[in-house]
Amino acid sequence: MGSCSCTRRHFLLSICFLQVITIIERQVFDFLGYMWAPILVNFFHILFIIFGFYGAYHFRVKYIITYLIWNFLWIGWNTFLICFYLNVGQLNRDSDLLNLGTGSVSWFEANGYGCKPTYNMAADDTFRPQRPERVEGCLLDYPLVEITHSGVQCALALLGILGAILISCIFLDEDDRCKWRSLNANKKHARLS
């Protein structure tokens, strides 16, 4: 492994580290808001980041390729979230799609910096989480915060894809060279015999 592969390897390890830090932060706020679909998908993302980190650290191409494929799916999920919070097409951020029917919402809707929520205390279902009727004074609206989270995840996933492709090419090229050398050595040995 030359210095070029070491640099690419460190790049991928750094991206994996940044992905873990940002996804743990996102996971905490999704738990606070009881957003069950994102919690589940974030958990899988953490597992695949571990695969990518392990593959880059121990030179395991199959783990890196698994991480690479997952990152394409991860970009799709985050693109869906961006469209969801922008109310694109039939998507509606006020629906129960992400909370799997529990009625909970993004933690940032009522708890963002400077937010002053107003609640309706005459709720029909006492077991559903209270959703604010109106939120005023927020420095950043919650859809913008969620879109920013998803945008950062997309950017890191693109960098992860780039790093995974670059490092996989190095490992696969070295495997091909080793196979070529062993084939040539076997041919020479067969001619001498």
Automatic annotation (TrEMBL):
<feature type="transmembrane region" description="Helical">
    <location>
        <begin position="64"/>
        <end position="88"/>
    </location>
</feature>
<keyword id="KW-1003">Cell membrane</keyword>
<dbReference type="GO" id="GO:0002028">
    <property type="term" value="P:regulation of sodium ion transport"/>
</dbReference>
<dbReference type="Pfam" id="PF05640">
    <property type="entry name" value="NKAIN"/>
</dbReference>
<feature type="transmembrane region" description="Helical">
    <location>
        <begin position="150"/>
        <end position="172"/>
    </location>
</feature>
<keyword id="KW-1133">Transmembrane helix</keyword>
<protein>
    <recommendedName>
        <fullName>Sodium/potassium-transporting ATPase subunit beta-1-interacting protein</fullName>
    </recommendedName>
</protein>
<dbReference type="GO" id="GO:0005886">
    <property type="term" value="C:plasma membrane"/>
</dbReference>
<keyword id="KW-0472">Membrane</keyword>
<keyword id="KW-0812">Transmembrane</keyword>
<dbReference type="InterPro" id="IPR008516">
    <property type="entry name" value="Na/K-Atpase_Interacting"/>
</dbReference>
<feature type="transmembrane region" description="Helical">
    <location>
        <begin position="36"/>
        <end position="57"/>
    </location>
</feature>
<comment type="similarity">
    <text>Belongs to the NKAIN family.</text>
</comment>
